[in-house]
Design brief:
Layout (H helix, E strand, L loop, with lengths): L5 E6 L2 E6 L10 H14 L7 E6 L10 H5 L6 H10 L1 H12 L4 E5 L2 E3 L1 H7 L3 E5 L3 E3 L13 H20 L3 E2 H7 L4 E3 L2 H16 L3 H14 L4 H15 L3 H12 L9
Parallel strand pairs: 2-3, 3-4, 4-6, 5-7, 6-9
Antiparallel strand pairs: 1-2, 7-8
Length: 266
């Protein structure tokens, strides 16, 4: 798994994915977005991965859409507009791949997270940031509308009011505001502390039964779009399957033997 703009490392069931289009401050080009989609699709199939940390190797987390590339795709005609949307599919796919990845994804954000960067982290399960982080939906300021899923996902995270405020103002909101909104779970002093915090949470996830964690993510994602009764029905169906797993047998045995369980995801 070698990429042009991504670095990746797996240790103790935790994958660390580093966005590394450094010279462009992780601006989202089509090639870069394709790599993001690919790495999350592949990590989702790997038994040696139980949690993923998404971070940035650049000076900031993400500068948003690569406007130079995007501007060159539109010809000003109806046919050109349709073709531009078709070419842009990797941008939509990268966020969907993160959300649909069976493994929980923790976004570790430092410095600025702009436009498409916010789309990306809104598709993650958990968001953490440094004190110097800021968040911005920039599209309205350049005459566009955010179309990579953030307007659909963000209201479930921070509510309609804050989402609309971010979308309409195109302002940069500091970490303190992001924490108040509920956009991030924790704010850390610096990047080192941020990564320590992210790794601690990832390790806590990785020690649990992989099938149970995966099913929990599936039920949580599904339940955002259905009523409580339908969401509960899916959870019950998942448990009917999980009750026959080797992991639950191991959990019971470990409890009786008074030892930590050793889950295999089977």
């Amino acid at each position: 798994m070698k990429y042009k703009f991504i670095e990746m490392e797996i240790k103790d069931y935790v994958a660390e994915v580093r966005l590394a289009r450094v010279d462009a401050l992780n601006a989202l080009s089509l090639e870069f977005a394709s790599e993001i989609a690919d790495v999350f699709q592949k990590l989702g199939t790997m038994d040696e991965v139980r949690a993923i940390i998404l971070t940035s190797k650049a000076r900031i987390f993400c500068a948003g859409l690569d406007l130079k590339e995007a501007g060159g795709h539109f010809t000003g005609t109806a046919k050109g507009a349709i073709e531009s949307v078709e070419r842009s599919q990797p941008l939509f796919d990268c966020c969907n791949a993160i959300e649909e990845c069976p493994k929980p994804v923790i976004a570790a954000v430092h410095s600025r997270c702009i436009g498409g960067g916010l789309d990306i982290i809104s598709a993650c399960d958990i968001r953490l940031c440094t004190q110097d982080a800021s968040f911005c939906l920039k599209e309205a300021a350049i005459g566009l509308v955010a179309d990579m899923g953030v307007l659909q996902r963000l209201p479930h995270i921070i509510g309609e009011g804050f989402t609309r405020q971010m979308a309409y103002t195109a302002a940069e909101y500091p970490a303190s505001d992001a924490e108040k909104m509920g956009l991030v779970n924790n704010v850390y002093q610096d990047k080192n502390a941020l990564m320590e915090g992210a790794k601690k949470i990832a390790a806590e996830i990785a020690q649990n039964a992989p099938l149970g964690v995966r099913a929990s993510k599936e039920v949580l994602n599904y339940s955002r779009y259905v009523n409580v009764k339908d969401g509960m029905a899916m959870a019950i169906q998942k448990n009917m399957v999980l009750m026959g797993s080797e992991d639950i047998k191991e959990a019971v045995t470990a409890f009786i033997e008074k030892r930590p369980p050793k889950f295999k995801g089977q």
